[in-house]
Design goal:
About 35% of the residues lie in helices and about 15% in strands. It is built from 7 helices and 10 strands. The chain has 2 domains: about 45 residues, no CATH class; about 140 residues, Class I glutamine amidotransferase (GATase) domain (Rossmann fold), CATH 3.40.50.880. Strands 5-6-10-9 form a 4-stranded mixed sheet, sandwiched between helices. The chain has a two-stranded parallel ribbon with strand order 1-4. The longest helix is centred in the C-terminal third of the chain and has 18 residues. InterPro entries: Class_I_gatase-like (IPR029062).
Length: about 190
């Protein structure tokens, strides 16, 4: 297992203690290295030929830095190294795992693919970002409704997705869904 991140400036920095923007600049690779305890490489150096699969985590970092979904929605652009990584694994017929908001990367890069970000309706207030499913459909992809503890496998494209924090759920349920996504990626590898 190796961890990669793009060597780019973050779109913005948030003070999570206060829940407000911070007046500072940070680098995505440097911040990712902090979280990964330093064991990380620049995404530009990733070679699909050296790996059996790739998994992208989710979160606002994806929506703000790996693409511009947080600002532009379905009209977003995808970071060039993220795009080329996805294309390389797809072309090599190697599995791609995506969770939380990161399935929008596949929806943007692979028209016609199948992904899930949970439900397409805000069921019991658990899916506050349910409109993301509609945006995915508008991109020409098929959104598959799944519960937080499930994943969806697009066998034709070898793309495995789960909603994770797109659902307001207990952490153990989110953990279970991410676990199923990882297991399905490993089965395809």
């Amino acid at each position: 297992v190796k961890i990669f991140a793009p060597n780019i400036e973050q779109r913005d920095v948030v003070n999570h203690l206060k829940g407000s923007p911070a007046e500072e600049k940070r680098n995505v690779l440097v911040e990712s290295a902090r979280l990964a305890r330093g064991n990380i490489q620049d995404l530009a150096e990733l070679k699909a030929s050296e790996f059996d699969a790739v998994i992208f985590p989710g979160g606002f970092g994806v929506a703000k830095n790996l693409c511009s979904w947080a600002v532009d929605g379905k009209n977003c652009t995808v970071n060039e190294h993220v795009n080329s990584t996805l294309q390389a694994f797809h072309s090599a017929k190697k599995p791609i795992g995506l969770c939380c908001i990161s399935p929008v990367l596949a929806a943007k890069v692979f028209p016609g693919c199948e992904v899930t970000v949970g439900q397409d309706k805000n069921v019991d207030g658990r899916f506050p970002d349910a409109e993301t499913a509609s945006a995915i459909a508008e991109l020409g992809c098929k959104h598959i409704c799944k519960n937080v503890n499930e994943s969806h496998v697009d066998k034709a494209n070898k793309i495995v997705t789960t909603c994770a924090f797109m659902c307001k759920a207990p952490l153990h349920e989110i953990f279970d869904g991410i676990g199923t996504m990882v297991q399905e990626v490993l089965k395809l590898a």
